[in-house]
């Protein structure tokens, strides 16, 4: 097997469990998530824009939960137990989703195409629906990245860890593509209950395989949340706000004795007031030379960790509105596809939710192309590699370009609707092929291939070793926030304008896209400023490699 060649027999044996578990989790989770908008519109008579808003909230929740899962795993339960519990919660959520699809009493009667009088779900139906979505979301969000952490913990060599993460993202993408095509097709063309039952079976098998391999896993004991150390620095600095700073290295507490020999001491450090947290005062250190009052004294290394996080926040924040347009576009593209001609030949009809596969395939292809050909060629031609910040910046530009393409395609769609007088017919199919949506989704995939790996690598390399788990969660966190921002932005535009009615055929989605183009351009300018300042901070002074800060 390929895994045996990469890691050896034992790790190959472990990864059979890990790969099987991850595949089942993603097949199950994305099998219902990819088609959620269509399910809400067709089975629960939810208006298309409202369905998009609900889907954005769900996506946001799923991407925020890994941070909570990481904190619980690091502080209390460990990665194995968090992954197992999350998979079981997802298992329960799939049972509820099957019930909503199978039992007619748990959903309203179907709405006829072209009818403006559709019965909304009852309160009980809404409760069961939202409970099932919430439970399934919590399970998927809590297990995805925890499995990645658990897998990396089995390996010792950094090179093996990097290879493992390559396999991890490959399995995620491959499983997502299968979910968004095969399972979505079953849901659309055969029955929702059968599609959800397949997701249920995948979840069950994943949980069984995962538990069966428990005795082979190497599980690290919880070490406490790294956020606690960051908070201690703030509290200690505030408590010592009246203490005068010293320029002598020996007046500060070092986690390792040898660190004080190489730690530079300068008069003008960035966020210099945080240095007070590491200044030694009477009663801070016990007879063994260890910290006696952890909420009043921290090490220089802990102060450096907090400074690193603060220094990266501006660049990290620019990623929120980099991903917000993508979140809006990905969801609305599904509602656009529902109103377009999706026939491939006379007998096959492309499921609306499956068009998002274009983004997955595009990003996967271009990540490999950039890594193996474009970036090495660039380095040979210019004599220097493309920096991580440059990759992220190129991603910004390409995402803005995709919004402009989306606006022009939507203008074409609206013109076709006007020419055929379909504005007043909810659910009417526009005589325009769904292929028109592919260019914008293809360009999004190219942009993602630039900025997503760039962001992950930037945070991983810049964060201190003690905060590496947080570094990988930073991207998930920004994606989660972006989905909530997209929900708020769409709702704001709905309230202030008439561009986003329940029937998108009578709306002006093109105006929304042009707003995203403008906002994306402004956000790119903000990123350039942040990137320039961050670069200046890094080259301004030589910083100790262990602590990452200067006094």
From TrEMBL:
It comes from the Eukaryota. The chain crosses the membrane at residues 20-41, 53-73, 79-99, 164-186, 192-213, 309-328, 348-370, 391-409, 429-450, 470-493, 513-534. The keyword Membrane applies. Belongs to the major facilitator superfamily. Proton-dependent oligopeptide transporter (POT/PTR) (TC 2.A.17) family. The keyword Transmembrane helix applies. It comes from Gossypium trilobum. InterPro entries: MFS_trans_sf (IPR036259), POT_fam (IPR000109). It is found in: Membrane. GO terms for molecular function: transmembrane transporter activity. This is Protein NRT1/ PTR FAMILY 2.7-like. Keywords: Membrane, Transmembrane, Transmembrane helix. It is a multi-pass membrane protein. GO terms for cellular component: membrane. It holds the Pfam family PTR2.
């Amino acid at each position: 097997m390929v895994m045996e060649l990469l890691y050896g027999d034992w790790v190959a044996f472990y990864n059979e469990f890990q790969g099987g578990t991850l595949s089942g989790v993603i097949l199950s989770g994305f099998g219902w998530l990819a088609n959620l908008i269509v399910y809400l519109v067709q089975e629960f008579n939810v208006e298309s824009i409202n369905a998009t808003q609900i889907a954005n909230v769900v996506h946001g929740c799923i991407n925020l939960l890994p941070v909570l899962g990481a904190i619980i795993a690091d502080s209390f339960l460990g990665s194995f137990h968090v992954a197992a519990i999350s998979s079981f919660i997802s298992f329960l959520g799939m049972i509820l989703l099957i019930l909503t699809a199978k039992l007619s009493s748990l959903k309203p009667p179907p709405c006829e195409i072209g009818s403006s009088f559709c019965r909304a779900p009852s309160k009980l139906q809404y409760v069961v629906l939202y409970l099932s979505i919430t439970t399934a979301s919590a399970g998927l969000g809590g297990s995805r990245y925890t499995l990645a952490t658990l897998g990396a913990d089995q390996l010792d060599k950094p090179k093996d860890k990097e290879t493992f993460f390559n396999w991890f993202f490959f399995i995620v993408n491959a499983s997502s593509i299968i979910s968004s095509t095969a399972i979505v097709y079953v849901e659309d063309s055969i029955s929702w209950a059968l599609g959800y039952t397949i997701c249920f079976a995948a979840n069950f098998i994943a949980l069984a395989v995962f538990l069966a391999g428990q005795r082979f896993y190497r599980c690290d004991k919880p070490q406490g949340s790294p956020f606690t150390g960051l908070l201690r620095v703030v509290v200690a600095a505030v408590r010592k706000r009246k203490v005068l700073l010293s320029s002598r290295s020996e007046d500060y507490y070092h986690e390792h004795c040898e660190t004080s020999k190489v730690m530079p001491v300068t008069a003008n450090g960035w966020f210099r007031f945080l240095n007070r947290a590491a200044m030694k005062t009477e009663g801070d250190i016990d007879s063994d030379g260890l910290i006696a009052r952890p909420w009043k004294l921290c090490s220089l290394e802990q102060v450096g960790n907090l400074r690193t996080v603060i220094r990266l926040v501006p660049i990290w924040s620019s990623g929120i509105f980099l991903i917000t347009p993508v979140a809006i576009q990905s969801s609305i593209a599904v509602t656009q596809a529902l109103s377009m001609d999706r026939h491939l030949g006379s007998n096959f009809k492309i499921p609306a939710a499956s068009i998002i596969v274009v983004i997955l395939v595009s990003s996967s292809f271009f990540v490999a192309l950039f890594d193996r050909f474009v970036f090495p060629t660039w380095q040979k031609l210019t004599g220097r590699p493309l920096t991580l910040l440059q990759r992220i910046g190129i991603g910004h530009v390409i995402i803005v370009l995709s919004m402009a393409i989306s606006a022009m395609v939507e203008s074409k769609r609206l013109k076709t609707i006007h020419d055929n007088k379909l504005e007043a017919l909810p659910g009417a199919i526009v005589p325009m092929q769904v292929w028109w949506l592919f260019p914008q989704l293809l360009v999004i995939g190219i942009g993602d291939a630039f900025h997503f790996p760039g962001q992950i690598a930037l945070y991983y390399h810049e964060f201190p070793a003690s905060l590496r788990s947080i570094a990988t969660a930073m991207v998930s966190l920004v994606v989660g926030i972006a989905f909530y921002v997209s929900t708020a932005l769409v709702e704001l535009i709905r309230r202030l304008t008439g561009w986003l009615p329940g029937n998108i055929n009578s709306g002006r989605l093109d105006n929304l896209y042009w707003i995203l183009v403008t906002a994306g351009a402004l956000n790119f300018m903000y990123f350039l400023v942040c990137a320039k300042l961050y670069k200046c901070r890094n080259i301004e002074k030589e910083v100790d490699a262990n602590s990452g800060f200067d006094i």
